[in-house]
């Protein structure tokens, strides 16, 4: 049997101090985009690796979590005494602020680039990146792109500005799947029309777009059809990491069935539902829920008229 290639998850591991709008606090909560996306991907794919800059305290803080979810750790690079810690403050409208406890310089020091991915993890089946427009990152990305497999870029929210649209369009020519939420799309494209948002992003040449809309679900399109997704019925305890989990699940689903975006969408929504149904990272019992949640995802298909798209 040919060994399964890894899905590489490249982002930050963070210990969060979370303040909700109602004043409830959850201190020292292990998370970060890397872990939420990796745990979600591991629900559908057995070989998942985290690539992240960490502190010397990482093993004590997060080692048990990686072990419990069978996540590979060859991509962890120790850059400081401390792993990133952040304070998350949610407002009543669901938006949030995120402040690094050890300051911006410490946060920057722990950022990795694709050249930091160890050769043992390449070639990858797929790679997830949660990133802004940092030039050093994307210059490095170009040097290893051919070894990254299916690439999903989840846009980092601070990059979602109209002034950055031209730059983002250029980068989208180099990735396969682009994920952003509705708030980011509005800021980036200046429109409330959700179908138009997906069409304008697909016009860049990217293969698949995910427009995440929180409790409303998501719009997903590959240029041939548009899927209106409604999430399965489940409780909502903590929405932190829900978007990252959605992305990790989608990418793993796309690896298992490369041309089946409905399957990937169901994997995404089921993973996100498990994530937000509990405080912090999903625990081992989640696997008992996946089949029911997968089947409970609402999907409405709408064909897209065949037309030749010219990347803009």
Secondary-structure map:
Layout: E1 7-10, E2 14-19, E3 25-31, H1 33-42, E4 48-55, H2 58-68, E5 71-80, E6 84-90, E7 96-100, H3 104-109, E8 126-131, H4 135-144, E9 150-155, H5 165-172, E10 177-181, H6 182-189, H7 194-202, E11 208-212, E12 218-221, E13 225-230, H8 242-256, H9 261-276, H10 287-296, E14 298-303
Parallel strand pairs: 1-4, 1-8, 2-6, 4-5, 8-9, 9-10, 10-11
Antiparallel strand pairs: 2-3, 6-7, 11-12, 12-13, 13-14
Helix pairs in contact: 1-8, 8-9, 9-10
Q: Concise description?
A:
With 312 residues, the protein is of the alpha/beta class. It has helices spanning 33-42, 58-68, 104-109, 135-144, 165-172, 182-189, 194-202, 242-256, 261-276, 287-296; strands at 7-10, 14-19, 25-31, 48-55, 71-80, 84-90, 96-100, 126-131, 150-155, 177-181, 208-212, 218-221, 225-230, 298-303.
Can you give a write-up of this model?
The chain is an alpha/beta fold. The protein has a single domain (7-303), classed as UDP-N-acetylmuramoyl-L-alanine:D-glutamate ligase, CATH 3.40.1190. Helix content is 33%, strand content 27%. It is built from ten helices and 14 strands. The chain has helices spanning 33-42, 58-68, 104-109, 135-144, 165-172, 182-189, 194-202, 242-256, 261-276, 287-296, and strands at residues 7-10, 14-19, 25-31, 48-55, 71-80, 84-90, 96-100, 126-131, 150-155, 177-181, 208-212, 218-221, 225-230, 298-303. The strands form two sheets. The chain has a ten-stranded mixed beta sheet, sandwiched between helices. β4 (48-55), α2 (58-68) and β5 form a beta-alpha-beta unit. The protein is globular and about 55 Å long. Residues 307-312 have low confidence and may be disordered.
């Amino acid at each position: 049997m040919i060994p399964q290639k890894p899905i590489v998850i490249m982002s930050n591991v963070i210990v969060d101090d979370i303040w909700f709008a109602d004043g409830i606090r959850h201190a020292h909560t292990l998370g970060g985009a890397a872990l939420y996306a990796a745990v979600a991907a591991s629900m559908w794919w057995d070989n998942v690796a985290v690539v992240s800059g960490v502190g010397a305290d990482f093993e004590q803080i997060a080692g048990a979590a990686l072990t419990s979810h069978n996540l590979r750790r060859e991509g962890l690079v120790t850059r400081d005494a401390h792993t990133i810690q952040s304070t998350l403050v949610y407002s009543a409208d669901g938006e949030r602020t995120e402040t690094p406890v050890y300051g911006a310089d410490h946060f920057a020091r722990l950022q990795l680039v694709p050249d930091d991915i160890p050769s043992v993890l390449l070639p990858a089946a797929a790679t997830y990146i949660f990133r802004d427009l940092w030039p050093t990152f994307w210059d490095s990305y170009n040097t290893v792109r051919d070894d990254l497999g299916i690439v999903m870029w989840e846009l980092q929210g601070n990059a979602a500005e109209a002034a950055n649209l031209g730059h983002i369009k250029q980068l989208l020519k180099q990735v396969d799947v682009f994920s952003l939420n509705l708030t980011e799309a509005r800021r980036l494209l200046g429109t409330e029309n959700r179908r138009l948002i997906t069409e304008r992003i697909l016009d860049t040449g990217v293969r698949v777009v995910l427009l995440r809309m929180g409790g409303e679900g998501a719009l997903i399109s590959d240029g041939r059809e548009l899927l209106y997704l409604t999430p399965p019925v489940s409780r909502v305890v903590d929405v932190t990491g829900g978007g990252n989990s959605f992305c990790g699940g989608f990418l793993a689903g796309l690896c298992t069935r490369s041309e089946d975006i409905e399957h990937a969408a169901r994997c995404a929504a089921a993973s996100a539902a498990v994530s937000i149904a509990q405080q912090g990272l999903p625990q081992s019992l989640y696997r008992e829920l996946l089949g029911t949640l997968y089947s409970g995802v609402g999907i409405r298909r709408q064909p897209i008229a065949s037309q030749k798209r010219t990347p803009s």
